[in-house]
Amino acid sequence: MRRITGIAAMLLATGVFAQSDEPAIFVPHYYSLGANVVSFTVDVDTGVITQADSEPAGVWMSALTLSPDGSTIVTGNAAGSSDGSSSIDYAWVLHVNSDATLTVLRDNAIPNSPLDLQFITDTRVAILNTDFSNSRVIIYDVDPVSGTLTQTGSVGTGGFSASLAYSEQHDLLFAEDSNSDWIYAYRIDAGGSITQVDQISTAPQFALGLEVDPFGEHLYGNGGISGDVVMGFEIHDAVPFLTDIPGQPFASAGDSPFRITFVEDGSLALLGHGRDATIHSYFVDGATGALTATGWSFDVGLQGSVGGMGSIGDLFFVLDDSTAIDGISGVYVFRASSDGTLTQIGDVVPTGTPRPEGPIAVWNPGGDNACAPDITGDGNVDTNDYFAFLALYQAQDPRADFTGEGDINTNDFFAFLAAYQIGC
Domains in the chain, start-ordered, CATH in brackets? Predict the structure, then answer.
């Protein structure tokens, strides 16, 4: 297991290590003998994914989240008493290297049952401590060098909550309560305190697998066994922070919907179902957020075998988390077309570890989550980035090839300066 020490820690602190240079996906594993995080690089032109690393991080990993700058992963390991304690579980923190390999920083003891996590900023994360009667959303500051988590705030949801979603555009965090059929909206202040600011009823269904669209303007929840529908809400900057999308809830084309994801341009959604293990595609109305089934579907296999999903560009990634009956598990890769159909690319790619399960984290350095002049990856464009770029430029580091021409010369220097002056 690789850990950062000495000079390596100093380099990380100055931004010489940062996020993956290539598009990448990160897959959690819910397994008693080794809860690895497996990383794959993605060739967006061919859709081929290539395993870059597999790093052990405790046992029974149920979720992970990737920081907005792509540099840090935090996992939630809902191990119950399998980790030696019935009252605490662990959150592991890993650093993402430029080649998409991973470096384990440390584990952190946290309250038990962390069923979902969501980065708020590059150095702040929300972790959902799920409980049958009063789940809690706990906010932590993340030290990206040491991997230490420091609690800054906490709030109870009042019931059973299992998923989080965050809108960066409106600076709102959302959690659901499937006991009382509510979705709650929260604000997190500069010091990390969290306060509930609104709620909306989803009755008669509860909402599973909360997800915000790529533009942060609409929130979706899935009915699961409470109803074959998808709920949709428009997000606002003031009370009411959530209002119904006209026509919601939207009928699901499959049985027991529980997870939804979107292509990067937001025009198409993919919905995963539990009971019939199918995935279906939906057109997304760009103005209202309304969903319309395209008629395309794919059968993953055994009931309950659809795992995490994610997308980069027009590529969708879907986990098959069980080898039962068909002997297949791993990552399916599909390319989406404008007519809503998806084309499978190659065979299922094994992850090398049993039970690839939970949300997939994706990173696209050429997509909307990239800020090119933020060389240090700290979320700001300042003199630290200027000097970090100068160091890369003088060392003829490939990351200083700002024009993408394959050579490092004055064109790259002036291209960086132009981007630096504009900022992000």
Answer: 6-363 (2.130.10.10), 383-422 (no CATH)
